[in-house]
Amino acid sequence: MNSGFEHCGWCVDGNNDRDPTGICCCVTRRGEPICLRCKAAYQRTGLPLSTETTSKIPTLDLQDYLCQDRDRQVKFAADLTDAFRSFGFVSIANHSVPAHEIETAYTHAKALFALPEETKARYTVADSGGARGYTRFGAEHAKDSNAPDLKEFWHVGREDVPWEQRDLYAPNVWPLGAFENRDGLVTQVFDGQGFRHAMLDLYTSLEILGGVLLQATAEGLGLPRYHFIQPVNHGDSILRPIHYPPIVGSVAEFAANQEATSVRSAQHEDINVITLLVGSGEPGLEVLSRQGEWIPVATSPDTIVVNVGDMLQRSTNNILRSTTHRVVNPPASSPWREKARYSIPFFLHYNAEYVLRPIQACIDAQDGVNHYPEAVTARTYLLERLAEIGLLK
């Protein structure tokens, strides 16, 4: 049972049993408390108001929101917000991001990470927190872990930076093309311009999709539809192609030699507003449910997995929760252990100068309790969190 949570007499002594996780039974599916005593207890502890359990995260069809049927739009917005309350994660089908953009981006990302280490290292920007360009294998770790993650990645940021904000946004770093001389025949092994175009195309499509989902989220919270749009209209958003190498040879030895065994991505919460993940199909992503169970999440180009980040949790005063997740190592007997894993998440951020404070309506919905009384700019918050995960010293 979660400590510090008081159940009302109706929960304990009535016909309804206690929830085994300690989450109050007297709540509806939408998370509205029936009993005032339990409502007060929830506000003291910040526990999630949900008794719903499932073996997988919900899947919603984006076309229900893009259609002209207002009833379907309202239901999508309610279901999306409900998923964000209950799980912090949702899978979006029929997402409208062109399949060829996803395929092309993965093709170029795989070619990039196949380049020699010394070539990739040329594109590391010192003292930048990995804001742009290449970050080497083992450089990042989770907030509460000293074990390095088993991954390398590249950061692509916004190109259309407002002139007055140019000092707050690092310029993108783009790799040059690479060629090999094979028996006198010069062959291009990496297309730098192709990589640039593929990443910017996917960046644009995911930013547009993120805006649509934020509109639906605002509606589901009872806010004006465009509430979140202006604060992200030049957000410091990041597209991150990631390569998790096969866990064999030197990688397996590196993982085993840490104080705590390294995994592909240790459990963590995302810093940003929402994350949109375009998966390539390999297993490994897991989400921690409100009941303390790790739920495997299937990823594929056909669906986009979306989750709440810490910034949106702060904005909604904990009504929407940033959920812990991880990427685990395949079991020793699994054939996936000998294969690379690739992923391309898009971290949608607020504008750098945006001031993070809970929305008043979200404070009012919790009887005036403000869980984040200290305001901070999105830029300052980001830098603090980058230091926590080892990208800024």
SSE diagram, text form:
Blueprint: H1 9-13, H2 36-45, E1 59-61, H3 63-66, H4 70-86, E2 89-93, H5 99-113, H6 117-121, E3 133-135, E4 152-155, E5 178-182, E6 185-190, H7 192-220, E7 238-239, E8 242-244, H8 249-256, E9 265-268, E10 274-279, E11 285-288, E12 294-296, E13 303-308, H9 310-315, E14 325-327, E15 341-348, E16 355-356, H10 360-364, E17 376-377, H11 378-388
Parallel strand pairs: 1-2
Antiparallel strand pairs: 2-13, 3-4, 4-8, 5-6, 7-15, 8-15, 9-14, 10-13, 10-15, 11-12, 11-14, 16-17
Helix pairs in contact: 4-7, 5-7
What's the quick description here?
Helix content is 29%, strand content 18%. It is built from eleven helices and 17 strands.
Explained architecture:
- Helices cover 29% and strands 18% of the residues.
- The chain is of the alpha+beta class and 393 residues long.
- The strands form 4 sheets. Strands 1, 2, 3, 4, 7, 8, 10, 13 and 15 form a 9-stranded mixed beta sheet that branches. Strands 9-14-11-12 form a 4-stranded antiparallel beta sheet, with no helix packed on it. It has a two-stranded antiparallel ribbon with strand order 5-6.
- Strand 5 (178-182) and strand 6 (185-190) form a beta hairpin.
- Helix 4 (70-86) crosses helix 7 and helix 5 crosses helix 7 (192-220).
- It is globular and about 70 Å long.
